[in-house]
Design brief:
The complex is a heterodimer of chains A (about 400) and B (about 120).
Chain A lengths: L10 H6 L3 H5 L8 E2 L1 H4 L1 H12 L3 E6 L8 E7 L4 E7 L5 E5 L14 E3 L4 E2 L6 E2 L5 E3 L18 E7 L2 E5 L8 H11 L8 E11 L3 H8 L10 H6 L16 E5 L2 E5 L9 H9 L15 E6 L3 E6 L2 E11 L2 E11 L4 H33 L5 E2 L6 H14 L6
Antiparallel strand pairs in A: 1-19, 2-11, 3-4, 3-6, 4-5, 5-10, 7-8, 8-9, 10-11, 12-18, 13-14, 14-15, 15-16, 16-17, 17-18
Helix pairs in contact in A: 6-9, 8-9
Chain B lengths: L25 H10 L2 H12 L2 H8 L9 H23 L29
Helix pairs in contact in B: 2-4
The chains are: A alpha+beta (about 400), B mainly alpha (about 120).
The structure holds FE2/S2 (inorganic) cluster (FES) and fe (ii) ion (FE2).
The site of FE2/S2 (inorganic) cluster has 9 residues of chain A, from loops.
């Protein structure tokens, strides 16, 4: 284990009601965390073989498809897999290795699109249906296979939950997706995801370990300090104490996943923000707020985030490239715009948020360099970072073969 | 992107000289934020800010489907305001200090008002 030297809570802590989350979750310990996990190629190799190769992985949602009869492709570098996701005319989602059965050519080269009449390999023209069946082989009479059922695309175990598309490459019988999602899945079982559109997507390559990037997003302790838009939002977009330090209103472990909330307080917005909000009151946070807390952040184990901020839902997928590189996929979802003013309100929410995340990027990369420097073998986590501790515990347990925390 | 004067809805004609900011694509709005001398960015902000509230009230009466060209121009001017608002109000400069390059933050989904458009 990498968690060492937990300290006992003192009587003073209890009296002042500080270090509350660690006291409520003593199983997480409170010692420092080793930095190997962010920099070691061996550690990364274990994550590939013991974590990503065995768990469920979110590839996005049906909103990434253009509707029935469409597809998208993904290059899953962490497992050296190329994936073709299809939706047929009936809305059934399937995924396959994006690999032609003939000689192994990458089948579809486009990122996404409407399904062509058939998926045709550009090398020799073998053609496949949306359900993976091979439907045409040029000069077939010269081949030796018995029948075409031997040469369909190789399917990947796929499950769809509330429109979110998950795959697993586990060779053992994996937990089903509902079991994997556990209490988090139950909590959002009837959330009306269908009122949300996917409106913005950013793919950000960073020179940072995937967990460095997740951790830096998975806390609000940095908000009053890091950078200008962060500091601006620390005036009230999150709960804070009298000293101006951000506070979690709630934290819980949901199986392998984590959740924390921080409830906004009122604060002085900028002139533009006020004019946009007051001129278009119909585009209010109340569109989603009755359903979730105003700022609610979930790490959906292992590499996805689902979070609610005002009337935006944002999701992140952190795609490890190697131990020190990640692609951070960011998707912003909003309720459908009804008026032209809604388009402007939505645009401003997205731009404010984008600038915030752009401020974060250089931090992620600087943390990685700091860990790689070997200056210290450990990092420290405070009580307001308990959710990071819980995430790493889930990773550690999974690598050790411990399931269903 | 046009630099000429543009048509705008009644009551907003005084902004017609800001055609250069009626930009339909995300990538081009980011470039405009970064490439325009910052005093000009501030001048654009100052010219528009007092009408944002009225413009939003007006646009909240206009459904998203089949917008007219003058409504599209007004929306695109306000989208440019959304792009530069943090620059003027918070950063006091065009680029974000000590951060990633904004040009890497072009949305891969970019629906402009005259048609749906994917940056892929
Ligand atoms: S490799 Fe695809 S048809 Fe030959
Ligand atoms: Fe941040």
């Amino acid at each position: 284990m990498t968690i060492v030297e937990s300290q006992r809570p003192s009587e003073l802590d209890v009296m002042k009601d500080v270090k509350r989350w660690s006291r409520r979750n003593p199983e997480l310990g409170n010692g420092p965390l080793s930095t190997d996990r962010f920099i070691s190629p061996e550690w990364f190799e274990r994550e590939r073989t013991e974590l990503f190769a065995k768990t469920w992985i979110n590839l996005g949602s049906v909103r990434d498809l253009e509707g029935p009869n469409s597809f998208f492709t993904r290059d899953l570098v962490v497992l050296d897999k190329q994936i073709l996701v299809t939706m047929d005319a009936d809305g059934e989602v399937r995924s396959f290795h994006n690999v032609c059965s003939h000689r192994g050519m990458k089948l579809m080269w486009e990122d996404r699109g409407a399904c062509p009449r058939a998926f045709v390999c550009r090398f020799h023209g073998w053609a496949y249906e949306k359900d993976g069946r091979c439907v045409s082989v040029p000069d077939e009479i010269e081949f030796h296979f018995k029948d075409r059922s031997e040469i369909g695309l190789v399917p990947i175990t796929t499950a769809v939950w509330n429109g979110f598309i998950f795959v697993t490459f586990s060779e053992e019988t994996p937990d089903d997706l509902v079991t994997h999602l556990g209490p988090l899945g139950e909590k959002f079982e009837s959330f009306p995801y269908d009122i949300l559109e996917l409106d913005y997507r950013y793919d950000i390559a960073e020179r940072a370990n995937w967990k460095v990037a997740i951790d830096a997003q998975n806390e609000i302790y940095h908000v009053p300090m890091l950078a200008p838009v962060h500091r601006f939002l620390s005036q009230g977009a999150f709960a804070s104490n009298d000293d101006g330090y951000t506070r979690l209103n709630d934290f819980s472990r949901l199986g392998l996943h984590t959740r924390y909330t921080s409830i906004s307080e009122s604060y002085e917005e900028t002139r533009f923000s006020n004019a946009v909000a007051k001129g278009n009151p119909a585009w209010g946070a109340e569109q989603l707020l009755p359903l979730v807390d105003p700022f609610e952040f979930h790490v959906l184990f292992p590499n996805m985030v689902m979070s609610f901020f005002g009337n935006m839902m944002f999701t992140y997928n952190f795609w490890p490239q190697d131990e020190s590189n990640v692609v951070w996929e960011i998707r912003l979802h909003f309720p459908a715009a009804k008026t032209l003013a809604d388009l402007v309100s939505r645009e401003f929410s997205a731009k404010r948020f984008r600038d915030l995340l752009c401020e974060d990027k250089s931090g992620h990369e600087a943390i990685q360099r700091g860990c790689e420097s070997g200056a210290r073998p450990y990092i420290f986590l405070g009580d307001q970072e308990v959710q990071i501790r819980a995430f790493h515990r889930s990773v550690d347990d999974y690598l050790e073969g411990i399931r269903n925390v | 992107m046009s630099s000429a004067s543009i048509v705008l809805p009644e009551g907003f004609e005084n902004l017609s000289q800001y055609g250069a900011w009626a930009i339909s694509r995300d990538e081009d709005r980011i470039a405009k934020r970064l490439e325009t001398p910052f005093e000009e960015v501030v001048a654009f902000y100052d010219a528009v800010i007092d009408q944002v509230y009225e413009a939003m009230q007006y646009l909240s009466t206009r459904p998203v489907n089949n917008p007219s060209i003058d409504d599209i121009n007004l929306v695109n001017i306000l989208k440019s305001m959304a792009e530069i608002a943090n620059a003027v109000e918070i950063y006091h400069q065009g680029p974000i200090p000590d951060a990633g390059d904004l040009r890497g933050y072009v949305s891969r989904i970019d629906r402009d008002l005259v048609g749906s458009d994917l940056n892929e």
